[in-house]
Amino acid sequence: MVLLESLVQLMPDINKAFFETLYMVGISLLVAIVLGLPLGVLLFVTDKGLFLENSVVKGVAGRIVNLIRSIPYIILLVALLPLTNLLTGTTIGPTAASVSLSVAAIPFFARMVETSMREIDKGVIESAIAVGATSWMIIKDVLLPEAKPGLVQGLTITTISLVGYSAMAGIVGGGGIGDLAIRFGYYRYDNTVMITTVVVLILLVQVIQLAGDSISKKVDKR
Amino acid sequence: MIEVNNLVKVYSSKKKEIVGVNNVSLNVKEGEIYGIIGYSGAGKSSLIRCLNLLEKPTSGQVKIDGVDLTTLKGDGLRKARLKIGMIFQHFHLVSSKTVYENIAFALKAAGKTKAEANKRVLELLDLVDLTDKKDQYPAQLSGGQKQRVGIARALANNPKVLLCDEATSALDPSTTKSILNLLKDINKKLGLTIVLITHEMEVVKEICHKIAVMQNGEVIEEGEVYEIFSNPKKPLTRDFINSILQFDLPEQLIEKRKGTIIKIQFKGEIAEESVVSELFQRYQVKGNILHGKIEYIQDTPLGIFIMELTGEASEVKKAIDYITSKTRSLEVVHGAA
Ligand SMILES: Nc1ncnc2c1ncn2[C@@H]1O[C@H](COP(=O)(O)OP(=O)(O)O)[C@@H](O)[C@H]1O
Ligand SMILES: [Mg+2]
Q1: Does A15 lie at the interface with B, CB-CB under 8 angstroms?
Q2: Domain span including residue B267
Q3: Out of B63, B79, B149, B247, which residue is the most buried by the measure of CB atoms under 10 Å away?
Q4: What ipTM is given for this predicted complex?
């Protein structure tokens, strides 16, 4: 009974935190798609033996991606605080957290894009070259549609990782479910909050995974 | 239409160099169906892929319709490729696009408007007999149907040349036949020049006018199909021909025979003449046909018979001389000549 009461009391906080998490993840996901997708395509098409082979571009892009990906998120978060301040005028709250989340998400998703394009049969790309298609046409009409199931899977994994990262952002006052868990669950030893946030996170991840799987299946014509 | 001069393709990797095509020169006339046959690894794919520069030749010239492709790059090469169709062993259709969209893609590459493309796609679907499959995805089609889509896509921009890389090797015999018939039709109707590579002599026999035999990256024998079939020079060529004209008799059977066993090959018109019946009227010999077969190399008969002749030695000799003069191709398989 006491448990239920405290839960009801917490509802507004949990609700707010939940939407803050969605907001942060949503923004960074959007940035990942807008910037990470082209970066991933670039990584793929400049690879050896492909139609825009360019070892310099591939080398530089690949190294930047590896560099960012090798930094643990929590360190990236701190290191990017000046940039965050510059862009958003603050270092706390979900909007501020979105900056470092986006920076982490771009190379993460870019690699996912590259990997899913590697799975395309080289012969199909070749047949498009043989037919006289431009590079842009090959990207738009062959690579992206053919990689669609993999892209959806990659987006799913990126989203789930972002949910995890966004919880970490809570440590430095990023808002969201992680923030709630730290403030109430950890500093105030409130197990109800702790367990509730964990349950909410588990459910969220499950829903994302299920949705991702079903969309990926739907777009798969192979 | 196609002129290849001293074409060399070397694949270099860090460890070693592999010669794919070794100094090949070819000439394919307009409207010709030109077959390139060879075992796996002979360099056939390397050669045909150099014809539209999917593979960049290490040296040599590839002229198509008078233009040396090796001098082109970027947009020039892309435009040249619009006029060179290609189909593949494993079809290489875009799996996320419908039959219609796969064909329309080629037209889009040529800068056609939606309306122009639509009209042309419908024509092509009719040509390859797939109108009812237009909204299906490749995964829903049989191998033969996929290859028909491949052909429609390759023909979309009215190419002058069609390159076929083992186009029927993944298909069953009856589907192979229907695809070959389609290619033959297209060749006749549109006057399209076709280069096809294969490892099956059956395919060559069915539709090619000329043939080149490849081994270790080189063309070792080349000529009119009928000439090659009736008079192969290289052992490898003979191997390929034997794969469809082979009928060796069992050794024991030959040993048991008392007479002279001869193998006669009739070419063209003569095959239809009654050389054999004439023979028995003229000479005092008895004939016993042990085996016989007439192959039609695109409507021209090529007959091979194995026969045992018995009788007086002198008569047998005369008979053999007579056949030799009539057919120019007689081989004594066993016994005295
Ligand atoms: N991309 C490549 N890289 C390295 N070697 C290759 C490549 N393509 C073909 N080869 C080699 O070139 C030779 C000829 O191959 P290919 O042209 O595919 O022959 P075929 O089509 O007659 O089977 C083979 O030894 C093959 O291993
Ligand atoms: Mg091959």
Answers
A1: no
A2: 251-334
A3: B149
A4: 0.87
